């Protein structure tokens, strides 16, 4: 065997190591991009900033992801899709369960949802993510309050569902939590009272 010739086994090991390094680099870029896009406005995040924190070059990011917008599409939209899916998979037995699920969801993800809401007209994928979230919330309400809604007439259903949307909207939570500085338990009491006003018990 020629001393300069690389064995198939060593060659395969080298290729495997390179592939692993490439995957680790890609994941590092994705992790940094996700954090920055979650913390800052889309326009404030630059590829240079992502590259510096991920310890790669801008050219590496462009080669792997194509552009800032395509990189964004690989980060926040998939994360939010998983968030909405996890919420839909939660078992909800009654109104108290629904309130607990709603508050847990907003305490964990409310600020990020609002962060996207404020930018929905800036990037197409942000608008799509916000729309998907709105549709997921509607589906969650219909499932969680099915027992109260199914007995209503068509007109009454339309009105009461609109009331539910307002009471459980992320902006309602934000007003109570961050503008009025209510505790989670106080918010639960407020929402419970509002639901009682529209005969959701």
How helix-rich are the residues, as a percent range? over 70%
- Share of β-strand residues: under 5%
Largest sheet: none
Structural class: mainly alpha
Q: Count every helix, treating DSSP H or I runs of 4 or more residues as helices.
A: 11
Could you describe the 3D structure shown?
The protein is mainly alpha-helical and 201 residues long. The chain has two domains: 8-72, Arc Repressor Mutant, subunit A (Orthogonal Bundle), CATH 1.10.10; 76-197. It contains eleven helices and no strands. α6 (95-117) crosses α10 (170-179) and α6 (95-117) crosses α11. The longest helix is centred in the first third of the chain and has 32 residues, at 8-39.
Secondary-structure topology with pairs:
Elements: H1 8-39, H2 47-54, H3 58-65, H4 68-73, H5 76-89, H6 95-117, H7 124-144, H8 146-149, H9 154-167, H10 170-179, H11 184-197
Helix pairs in contact: 1-2, 5-7, 6-7, 6-10, 6-11
Main attributes of the structure:
201 residues, 2 domains, mainly alpha, Arc Repressor Mutant, subunit A, elongated
Q: What is the structure about, briefly put?
A:
The chain is built from eleven helices and no strands.
């Amino acid at each position: 065997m020629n001393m300069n010739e690389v064995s198939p086994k060593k060659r395969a090991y080298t290729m495997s190591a390179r592939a692993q390094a490439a995957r680790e680099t890609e994941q590092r870029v994705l992790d940094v991009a996700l954090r920055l896009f979650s913390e800052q406005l889309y326009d404030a995040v630059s590829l240079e900033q992502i590259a510096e924190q991920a310890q790669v070059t801008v050219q590496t990011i462009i080669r792997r992801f194509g552009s800032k917008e395509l990189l964004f599409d690989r980060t926040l939209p998939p994360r939010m899709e998983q968030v909405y899916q996890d919420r839909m998979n939660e078992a909800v037995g009654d109104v108290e369960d629904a309130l607990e699920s709603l508050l847990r969801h907003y305490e964990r993800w409310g600020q990020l949802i609002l962060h996207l809401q404020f930018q929905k007209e800036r990037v197409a994928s942000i608008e799509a993510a916000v729309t998907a979230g709105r549709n997921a919330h509607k589906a969650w309400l219909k499932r969680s309050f099915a027992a109260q809604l199914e007995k209503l007439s068509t007109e009454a259903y339309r009105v009461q569902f609109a009331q539910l949307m307002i009471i459980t909207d992320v902006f309602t939570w934000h007003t109570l939590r961050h503008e009025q500085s209510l505790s989670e338990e106080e918010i639960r009491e407020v929402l419970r009272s509002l639901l009682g006003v529209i005969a959701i018990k």
